[in-house]
Each structure stands twice: as C-alpha cells, then as structure tokens.
Amino acid sequence: ASEGKISVIADGVDHELFAPLSDLEAIEKIKKKYALPEHYFVFVGNHKRHKNLRGILEGFSQFLAKTKEPCFLLLVGKTSGLHNLEAVAQIIEKLPNLKEYVRMLGFVDIKDLSCLYENAISLVFPSFYEGFGLPPLEAMRASCPVITSKAGSLEEVCEKAAYYVDPYDSASIANGMQNLFEQKDLRKELIKKGQKHVKKFLWKETAKSHMELCLLYT
Q1: Distance CA 196, CA 180 (A)
Q2: Each residue of 106-119: pLDDT tens digit?
C-alpha cells in the first residue's frame, strides 16, 4: 500500500484497571494471595522465544551473583500450549540460584495484576520483537518502572519513559536490574516519566481514531 493509505493507530491502556491501588486492605490481600516477596522483578507475557526468557533468566542469575539481598523474579503469563516455547524450567534448573528465586505464577487474575506491577522493582521486558507491547504501558500506569529493549515497536511505544538494555546481552540485562534495584532516584524518575507518558494511550482515543477512519472511507 502507498504511504498515503496507511494510518497508524496506537493501542490503549485501561487506566482504571491498572491504576495504583489505594486500598491498603486490598493490597495486603493480594500480597498474601501470591505470597509476594519484599523485593522482586516481574515479567508479564507468554513464554515464546521472542520474549527472551533465556536472556531474562541469565541476566537475573548474574544479578543475584552481584547482590547480597534476597530478590525474586516472578514470571506471569501462559507457559504451555504455544509454538516456539522457551524451555524455561530447564534453564532454571541449569543456572545458579534460580530454583530458589524464580517463581512461575502462570495466569493471574487481571484485577490483581496492577498490584503485582506496583510492588515490583521493575517490569523486565527485553523482547527480541514486539508488534506493540502492552505490558510496559500497563506497568507505567501502575507506577512500575520498565526495563525493556529497543526491538520492534518497543522504543516507539515507550520513548524516553523506560530503561533500555541490549536483549542479546545478558550482562546488559543484569546491569539494568542492578541499577533499578540499587538506585531509588532512578526508579522514581522512571515512574514519573512513565505516568506522564502513558496518558497518551487511551482506549477511547483508539476507538475514536478507528471511527474517524471508517467515516472517511464510507
């Protein structure tokens, strides 16, 4: 198609669903439900190879070797029934410390996901490719810093509101984790940038753009 026939319409984020929680009782209930540790990183997505679970796990293993405080990695999302799945369980078995500090939660109630984001050190999402990439925006809305890559659409979607790492270099991922873990000011800065940036992504604006485009060609 010619350039003049292409219209770019971004996805949106449910700003009510992923808003930071203010109900302390509800927060404690969710923390107890998933036995959330005090310090953890979170990955949200399926276990297909383009999600780079191997790089995340190798980076996390290196991060654990550098830090003396206990810290966990929570993997949220579908783990089976898909093509091109990463052998996550086998990687965990082979790398140091991962059996103790990696938890595969599988699917979680979407109503609980905001709390998992909000209480994490950061979302870790260094994909090799994404067509769009909603989890980083969900995390930003929930006041969670984002570690991601510049692959596919991710840099265009996240702009300057994320911490970028090289998805092909596990040491780069490990350094990103360490920086977010140790530097509270960096976390606060990314949270502030993320909260501002995610305001651009509203489902009502996505729907409005689609309607305007439909009316243009009817």
Answers
A1: 19
A2: 999 999 999 999 99
